[in-house]
Amino acid sequence: MNNRKISRVLKSQPTIEGAGVHLKRAFGNANVNLLDPFLLLDDFHSDNPDDYIAGFPWHPHRGIETVTYMLHGNVKHEDSLGNGGVIEPGDVQWMTAGSGIVHSEMPQQTNGLLRGLQLWVNLPSSHKMMDPRYREVKNEQIPEISLKNGIKIKIISGEVEGTRGPVRDIVVDIQYLDVTVPSGAECEYPISKGYTAFAYVLAGAGYFDEVKEKRIDEDHLVIFTDGDKIKITADDASMLVRFLLISGKPLREPVAWYGPIVMNTQEELQLAFEEYQKGTFIKHKVDGVHIDGGIK
Ligand code: FE2
Q1: Domains of the chain, first to last
Q2: pLDDT tens-place string over residues 179-225
Q3: How far apart are the C-alpha atoms of 102 and 113, rounded to whole Å?
Q4: CA 181 / ligand 1 centre spacing (Å)
Q5: How many A from CA of 95 to the centre of ligand 1?
Q6: pTM of the entire predicted model
Q7: What is the Å distance from ligand 1's center to 35 Cα?
């Protein structure tokens, strides 16, 4: 077995998105191809409503899947397929934009803490124009396993020690885990060789390799080198380290990306925006849904 090392550490950066939401971006279109097949990870984390209340009104996506994981607070989702619902703490929403979807994501609270994460997973060229789909997974459907050394793992996608997460049938093979390691415990975890792997620290601090020279704090992203497994320990003073551990099989395809649309070529990208302007963007049947400003 070959231990993965730390390849790079990125600190999430303040960014304004949607209708004026202040969030932190761990990686995104400034880092194209850095984490193939992953495109972007946004961290919404504020107890100031001015930072989040504007939300993300109706906007399109094509060519990607988005995964939203709420930790605190509530977000209302509506889309051009006719889906609607409130994503509550611990819930996951998995949306395949495919050929095109228009949706809105709006906070359902006017005060208090809001924290959520949104990951964008690229679709391969063979599936960029697939039919869009939407899945919502409630907190209670997400299994949490406890290992003997006090480590807890919530399995959103993938399999750990025989327990499978509820998010399946994903185009790109990915594993999405929410891991908590208490101080004193060592988390050794296998990750398929050749897969892109990263950890994003949600709380506490820890060490993400064998040498333990660099303590990684909250809001930092660790990108791993290739190998068979990773080794993680919590920083003693922090009591624990909680992190998302995400890995996936790279696509190794060209990326043409502007805003919410990610294709393989500039021509496909231009076509998407032309279709959006002309009102022919949505390929699926729009069934009695009022999309305010989404489709012209
Ligand atoms: Fe969106």
Answers
A1: 6-248 (2.60.120.10)
A2: 999 998 999 999 999 999 999 999 999 999 999 999 999 999 999 99
A3: 27
A4: 31
A5: 9
A6: 0.94
A7: 20
